[in-house]
C-alpha cells in the first residue's frame, strides 16, 4: 500500500469513527417496546389468573452522533431533542441517569401506596431523610454533596422528613455553617457546608440542592418490583394496575392486552409524561388493544407560555389516527378512571 492510499484509509477510518462516536448536543428519542408487567411485579402468594396482559411502555433514548443524527432527520419514527431539553443545566450523563432511576423508584413507591389503598390491604411507610437529586452550580453544596447522597441529619439533629430540614434552615443566615450527616455509597459521612444565597433566588439562603423525600414502604403481602433498568416515572400507572390485579380476585384485563403510561401520584392522579407519541407507536407494534393515556390538565399560565401545547391524551389520539391503529385510546385523570373502565369492560 503506497503512502497516499494509506493516508486516505486513515482519513476514511477517522471520519467513520467520528461519525458513529462523536457526541452531539442532541438526544434521539424513538419507540421502545411493550413489556408485560408480570415479569417485573410479583405480589406474594398472588393468583396470576389473568387471561390478558398488562404492559408498561418504554421509549428509547440515545445520544446523537453525526451519522445517527442524519438518520434521525430522515426517520418519521425518531425525534431529535436538544440536550438542554432532556438534562438539567450542568447535569452530567451519569447524574441524569441517576435522576431517572430515582424517579422510577418513586413511581414504584407511589404504585404500592395507591395500589394497597385501593385494595384495602396493609402497608406502612418509613421516612429516611432526604435524597439529593441535583446540586446547584455555585450553590453552598457545590463540590461537597452530589446527586444520590442521602441527608439523614443536620448539626446532630436526625432528619426523617423533608419538612424537618426545611424548617431547620429557615432561620439561618448566609455565612453560617452546618454539619450534614449523609449516606454515600452505603457509608455514613459528615460534611460541613457554609450556607449562602441559593442561585436563582432573591436572598433565599440554603444548602443549594434540589431534593425529594427519601422514603420506603412495607406491605402485607410483600411486593417486589424488579425494573432497575427502566428509568423515569411513566410506568407508575401500570405498576399500580398490575399490583391491584394481583392483590384482588378476578381478572382486570378481561382477556385484553392492556397498556398505558403516566406518572402515579400519591393522590391517585395520573401525571403527564414525555414521549407519548412514541409509546403509542410502540404499543401498536406490540399488539396492544387498550391504551390508557393521561388526560392531564393544562393551566392557562402554561398555555400562555406554550400556545401549541396539547394534553397527553390529545397527542395520543392524533398519533393513533396517523398510524391508523385499531387500538382503543382511553383518557385517564386518575387511577379510578382506569379501574372503572376495566370494570365496565365486557369479557373478551
Automatic annotation (TrEMBL):
Sequence intervals crossing the membrane: 7-28
Annotated EC: 3.4.21.53
Top class in the EC scheme: hydrolase
Signal peptide: none
Domain PDZ: 100-186
Keyword DNA-binding (UniProt): no
Catalytic activity: Hydrolysis of proteins in presence of ATP
GO MF annotation terms: ATP binding; ATP-dependent peptidase activity; serine-type endopeptidase activity
Keywords: Hydrolase, Membrane, Protease, Serine protease, Transmembrane, Transmembrane helix
Active site: 234, 279
One GO biological process term: protein catabolic process
Residues in Lon proteolytic domain copies: 187-345
Family per similarity comment: Belongs to the peptidase S16 family.
Protein name listed in UniProt: endopeptidase La
Organism encoding this protein: Viridibacillus arenosi FSL R5-213
